[in-house]
From TrEMBL:
It holds the Pfam family adh_short_C2. SMART domains: PKS_KR. Keywords: NAD, Oxidoreductase. This is 2-keto-3-deoxy-L-fuconate dehydrogenase. Residues 7-174 form the Ketoreductase domain. The lineage of its organism: Bacteria, Pseudomonadati, Pseudomonadota, Gammaproteobacteria, Lysobacterales. It comes from the Bacteria. Transmembrane segments: none annotated. PANTHER family: DEHYDROGENASES, SHORT CHAIN, ESTRADIOL 17-BETA-DEHYDROGENASE 8-RELATED. GO terms for molecular function: oxidoreductase activity. Belongs to the short-chain dehydrogenases/reductases (SDR) family. Gene3D superfamilies: NAD(P)-binding Rossmann-like Domain.
């Protein structure tokens, strides 16, 4: 397993299934974890409630992290919000809120922590996107648009920070078996049929797991991936090569 001994790592969305598993996986690899979410997470050496859509909230969390753990060398942005609505059903205000957390949150984290990484000549950002960033996603208009924006930010930021030795990568999961995904099936008339249909979209024949995602994030943030930057890596059971 790649090691992150004594690295200070910020992980957002740490109260969710993917974020919590990432906290545990990174801690097992030797990292010191600052866990952030809208509600205080259960994981992390330092666990903080933080609204990534609010400048003051992010600034306050950043100050606490520096004071208690030191400057982060790795930031994993796994937090996201969504709206279940088509483009016509949504509103500009809803789009703005989803974008402000999913993309604006990443920008706030970069502006808070990248300067110290640049000064040190090393660091990593890992941004959790979605295959919905490059496929159409009817009924998830704001979410899909924000993930497309996050993919573009990943490429741009990677170019901006590469000369200073800071790497930036993304991952694009398909359906990950989390309580949030199960809840989306529960909203439909036949949840079991919806689950079965969703599984069939993945050629490997199963949903992904939070552990699958955490393993890829750990690799990308470790020295094992030292020559990878600007990539958004699909983790989708083959869904992106056989969209169905």
């Amino acid at each position: 397993m790649p090691r992150l001994d004594n690295e200070v790592v910020v992980i957002t969305g740490a109260a969710g299934a993917i974020g919590a598993e990432t906290c545990r996986r990174f801690a097992a690899a030797g990292a010191r974890i600052a866990a952030l979410d809208l509600r205080q997470p259960d994981e992390g050496e330092l666990a903080l409630a933080c609204d990534l859509g609010d400048d003051a909230s992010v600034a306050s969390a950043a100050a606490r992290i520096r004071a208690e753990l030191g400057e982060p060398t790795i930031v994993v942005h796994a937090a996201a919000t969504t709206e279940f609505a088509t483009t016509l059903e949504s509103s500009p205000q809803a789009f703005a809120r989803v974008y402000d957390v999913n993309v604006g949150g990443a920008v706030r984290l970069v502006q808070a922590f990248a300067p110290a990484m640049v000064a040190a000549g090393r660091g990593n950002f890992a941004l959790v996107s979605s295959i919905n960033g490059y496929f159409g996603a009817p009924g998830l208009a704001a979410y899909a648009s924000s993930k497309g924006g996050l993919d573009a930010l990943t490429r741009t930021l990677a170019l901006e920070l590469a000369p200073q030795g800071v790497r930036v990568n993304g991952i694009a999961p398909a359906s990950i078996d989390t309580p949030l995904l199960r809840a989306s099936f529960a909203r439909l008339p036949d949840p079991a049929a919806a689950l079965a249909k969703n599984v069939l979209r993945h050629p490997l024949g199963r949903l992904g797991t939070p552990a699958d995602v955490a393993s890829l994030l750990l690799f990308l943030c470790s020295d094992e991936a030292a020559w990878i930057t600007g990539a958004t890596v699909p983790i989708d059971g083959g869904a992106s090569i056989a969209r169905r």
